[in-house]
Write a structure and sequence with these properties.
With 681 residues, this protein is α+β, with helices and mostly antiparallel strands. Among the domains are: 469-608, Sandwich (Jelly Rolls); 611-680, Immunoglobulin-like. The chain contains 13 helices and 38 strands. The strands form 13 sheets. The chain has a 6-stranded antiparallel β-sheet with strand order 20-32-33-38-35-36, with helices on one face. Strands 21, 23, 24, 26, 29 and 31 form a 6-stranded antiparallel β-sheet that branches. Strand 10 (232-235) and strand 11 (238-241) form a beta hairpin. Helix 3 runs parallel beside helix 13 (434-448), helix 6 (203-228) packs across helix 8 (269-284) and helix 10 (329-348) packs across helix 11 (367-384). The longest helix is centred in the first third of the chain and has 26 residues, at 203-228. 56% of the residues are buried.
Length: 681
C-alpha cells in the first residue's frame, strides 16, 4: 500500500474541512491533507508479462527482454471475503487462459501512465515514476509500427502477452488498430504527458516517446485530419465537425491534452497544427444557451445533437489547458461557458450521469464522469483566474466521499479502492476496475492539491435539495387520438426514448400529467419531444397548468436529416410558467395543436425549479448552500434558517458580483442565470 502522509489526520481534516464566518474565511479554512491519496489498489491491479520471444510483427518496446508492465482491466468484489479478484474482459477460457477480449488494454494502461505521472508531479514519488515508465512501455508496445496500420494502436493483450486484434465482442474499429480510436487518443495523451516528464529525467526514454508520438501524429493526420479538416457532417440541419477522432469531441479532447503537453515541451509544429485542428472542432460544437437545453454544453459526439454524457467529456479541461499555449482565447471562452452554465447546473441537478439523451435517462454515474467534471472545472478556474470554478471543482470532487445519489463514499482511503459506479437506482457497484481507480485518483489528486478546491472536499453529506422532476408522457390520462407507442428499440441511434415509450398525439388528442412540487415557488417546464421535418407550426402541443393555458410548443422545423439514421430527432423545449406554484400536486395538460397531417410525439416533461439548490454539510456541522438560477430575471431565494451565511454571488459567466452577509431565512437575489455559494458561520 502506498499512502502519502498521515491517513488518520487526513480523514479528520476531511470530516471538518471548512470553517469561518466570512467570505475570506472560505479561503483560509483547513484543507484536506494530500496524504489521503492512496495508490494501493492501482498497484494491486499492476502485473507484468514476459517479453515475447517472438513479438507480434510491428510491435516492440524499449528494454527488449524485460517484462512488460500491465494493469488488469477489472477487479470483481467478493462480498463474503471483502476482497477483490483481478480479471479480464469477455468470456474466459481456462483451457487456453484467454479472454474473449483480453486481460489488459491500452485504454486503461495509457491512463494509468497519466495517473502515475500526475502522482509523480505532485509528490515526486520515484515508485510512481517507475510505474509510469512501465505503463508507457506497454503503450509503446501496443502501437503498430509497420504495415498499413502503422501509427495506430492495438487495444487488447491476453494474460500471456499475446495481442488480440479482433476480440469478442468486436471493437470499433475492428481490427483494433485499423483506424483512429479512443485508445489512440488516450495513448497520445499518455505519450505527450510522458514526454513532458521524462525529457527532464530520462532523455533517452523521452526520445523514444517522441518518436512514437510523431508516428501516431502522422497516422492521425493522413488518415483522419488531412482529408476531413474543415468538412462538416449535416445532422438535422446542424453542422458538426467531421474530423474528430471516432466522431467524438470526448476522444479528441483526450488527444488534445497530449498534443498540447507535447507542444509545450517540444515546440513541435506538427503537434501544434493537429492540436489547433482538433481544438477548433471541439470548441465549435457547443449547443444551447443559458436559457435552453443543453445550457451551453460542449457536446461529446458529432453524430448526435441529443446526447451528452459525462464519461470521457474532457472538452472543457482540454480547451482551457490548451488555450493559452496555443493562443486560442476563444477556446477558453467556450470552456468558461460550459463550466458556468452547464456544469454548475449539472452539479445541482442530474449530476455527472452517463446519459442526457436528451432527457436525464441513464442516471448511472461513474468515476470517469465525475473526473471530467472536476478536472474541467479546475482547468477553467486556473486558466481564467476566477476561483469560483475551483470551488465548484472541490464540491464536485466530494462525489468521492458521499456527495452523490447513493450518499456513501465511492473512494476508500485506507485501500485506494474506487467503486465502479452508482447504478441508476442509487445502488453501488462495488467492483473496482482500472478505469474507476485511475479516474477517481486523478480527480482526487488534482482537487486535493489545489488550495481552493481542497477546502470544499469535506462537504459530502447532502442535507436537502430542490431539483427537477421527470414525468413520463405515458403516465398521464389520455383522451381522443392519444396512444402509447413502444418503439422496437428505445435507442434511436442518437438518442433514447425515456422509459422506452412515448405518446402519439393526433387531432383532438390530449395527455394530462401530474407533477408534484415539494416547495412553493417559480418553476419552468421542459417538454421532451420528437422534432420533425415539417413546417414549424404544423405539429405541436398547447400546454395548460392546472387548467390555465401557459403556452404552446411548436415541434416541427427539423433541418435536413444528413448523416442521421432518423429524419426526426429527440429534443427539449422550454416553456415559462407565469405564476408561482404552490407545494403539492399540479396538472400539466398537453393537447395536440397542428395541421392534423403530422402527429406530435411526446416523450416526457421535466418540471424544473427556476432556482435550484443543494445544501451540504461536513463532519463538523458546517454547511454550504449552493444555488443556480435558470431565469433571465434576478431570482430571489431564501437561505436556510438558524444560521448566519456568507454569500458569494456570481454572474452567468462565473464572475464574482458581490459578497454579502445574511441571516438564515433571509432572501438573496441571484443575478440573471447566475449562481451563489453560501457558507455557514
Amino acid at each position: 500500500m502506498r499512502l502519502r502522509g498521515t491517513l488518520v489526520m487526513a480523514l479528520a481534516v476531511l470530516m471538518g474541512a471548512f470553517g469561518g464566518i466570512s467570505a475570506a474565511a472560505q479561503d483560509t479554512a483547513g484543507s484536506l491533507d494530500p496524504g489521503v491519496v492512496n495508490l494501493g489498489h492501482l498497484d494491486f491491479l499492476h502485473d507484468s508479462v514476459p517479453y515475447p520471444v517472438r513479438p507480434s510483427a510491428g510491435h516492440s518496446t524499449t528494454d527488449p527482454g524485460s517484462p512488460i508492465d500491465t494493469w488488469w482491466v477489472y477487479a470483481n468484489f467478493n462480498p463474503t471475503t471483502s476482497t477483490y479478484t483481478r480479471t479480464g474482459g469477455g468470456s474466459y477460457d481456462p483451457g487456453t487462459n484467454t479472454y474473449g477480449q483480453g486481460a489488459f488494454d491500452t485504454d486503461d494502461v495509457s491512463r494509468a501512465a497519466v495517473a502515475y505521472l500526475t502522482h509523480y508531479r505532485y509528490y515526486h514519488d520515484l515508485h510512481s515514476l517507475k510505474l509510469a515508465r512501465g505503463a508507457l512501455r506497454f503503450v509503446v508496445y501496443m502501437q503498430t509500427t509497420s504495415g498499413p496500420n502503422a501509427g495506430n494502436f492495438v487495444l487488447w493483450m491476453q494474460p500471456s502477452g499475446a495481442l488480440n486484434l479482433t476480440p469478442t465482442p468486436p471493437d470499433q474499429p475492428n481490427p483494433s488498430d485499423a483506424g483512429a480510436s479512443y485508445w489512440m487518443a488516450r495513448s497520445i495523451w499518455a505519450l505527450g504527458e510522458g514526454y513532458q516528464t521524462f525529457r527532464a529525467t530520462d532523455a533517452s526514454f523521452a526520445s523514444v516517446l517522441s518518436t512514437r508520438m510523431r508516428l501516431a501524429m502522422s497516422k492521425l493526420d493522413t488518415e483522419l485530419l488531412a482529408p476531413n479538416y474543415g468538412h462538416f457532417l449535416t445532422l438535422h440541419g446542424y453542422q458538426t465537425p467531421a474530423w474528430l477522432i471516432a466522431d467524438g469531441a470526448d476522444a479528441s479532447s483526450e488527444a488534445l491534452l497530449g498534443l498540447s503537453s507535447y507542444t509545450k515541451a517540444s515546440g513541435d509544429a506538427e503537434a501544434r497544427k493537429l492540436a489547433e485542428e482538433l481544438g477548433s472542432g471541439i470548441a465549435d460544437f457547443q449547443l444551447g444557451s443559458d436559457r435552453n437545453w443543453p445550457w451551453r454544453a460542449l457536446m461529446p459526439w458529432a453524430r448526435s445533437v441529443s446526447d451528452w454524457h459525462a464519461w470521457g467529456a474532457h472538452m472543457s479541461m482540454a480547451l482551457a489547458m490548451s488555450a493559452g499555449a496555443l493562443d486560442r482565447p476563444g477556446w477558453l471562452t467556450a470552456a468558461r461557458h460550459d463550466a458556468s452554465s452547464f456544469e454548475v447546473h449539472q452539479q445541482l441537478s442530474f449530476g455527472p450521469i452517463n446519459g442526457l439523451e436528451p432527457a436525464p435517462n441513464d442516471l448511472s454515474q461513474i468515476a470517469y464522469g465525475n473526473e471530467t467534471t472536476v478536472d474541467g472545472l479546475l482547468a477553467v478556474g486556473t486558466a481564467t483566474g476566477d476561483d469560483v470554478f475551483r470551488r465548484w471543482a472541490g464540491i464536485a470532487a466530494g462525489w468521492l466521499f458521499g456527495n452523490n445519489p447513493a450518499g456513501v463514499p465511492m473512494y476508500q482511503p485506507d485501500t485506494g479502492v474506487v467503486f465502479d459506479g452508482i447504478n441508476g437506482d442509487g445502488t453501488i457497484n462495488h467492483n473496482s476496475g482500472a478505469e474507476s481507480t485511475i479516474e477517481g485518483l486523478l480527480s482526487l489528486m488534482n482537487a486535493v492539491n489545489d488550495p481552493v478546491a481542497s477546502r470544499y472536499l469535506g462537504f459530502a453529506k447532502i442535507l436537502d435539495r430542490l431539483t427537477y422532476q421527470k414525468v413520463e408522457a405515458e403516465s398521464g390520462a389520455r383522451s381522443g387520438q392519444a396512444a402509447v407507442v413502444k418503439p422496437a428499440s428505445a435507442w434511436t441511434g442518437e438518442a433514447l426514448w425515456s422509459n422506452g415509450e412515448y405518446v402519439d398525439l393526433g387531432p383532438g388528442g390530449s395527455d394530462n400529467l401530474t407533477v408534484t412540487t415539494s416547495t412553493a415557488g417559480h418553476y419552468l417546464l421542459y417538454v421532451v419531444f420528437d422534432k420533425q421535418i415539417a413546417p414549424t407550426e404544423s405539429v405541436g402541443v398547447t400546454v395548460d397548468i392546472d387548467g390555465v393555458r401557459v403556452g404552446a410548443d411548436q415541434e416541427g422545423g427539423a433541418g435536413a436529416q444528413g448523416v442521421s439514421p432518423n429524419p426526426d430527432y429527440l429534443w427539449i423545449d422550454r416553456l415559462e410558467l407565469p405564476k408561482a406554484l404552490s407545494a403539492g400536486h399540479h396538472s400539466v395538460g398537453l393537447a395536440y395543436s397542428g395541421s392534423g397531417s403530422v402527429h406530435a410525439k411526446i416523450d416526457a416533461v421535466l418540471l424544473q425549479p427556476a432556482v435550484e439548490w443543494k445544501v451540504l454539510a461536513n463532519g463538523s456541522g458546517q454547511q454550504l448552500a449552493l444555488y443556480k438560477s435558470l431565469t433571465d430575471e434576478g431570482a430571489a431565494t431564501t437561505l436556510p434558517s438558524s444560521r448566519r451565511w456568507e454569500v458569494r454571488l456570481y454572474d452567468r459567466n462565473g464572475r464574482l458580483v458581490d459578497s454579502v452577509t445574511r441571516r438564515g431565512g433571509e432572501a438573496v437575489k441571484l443575478p440573471a442565470y447566475g449562481s451563489a455559494i453560501a457558507a455557514s458561520a
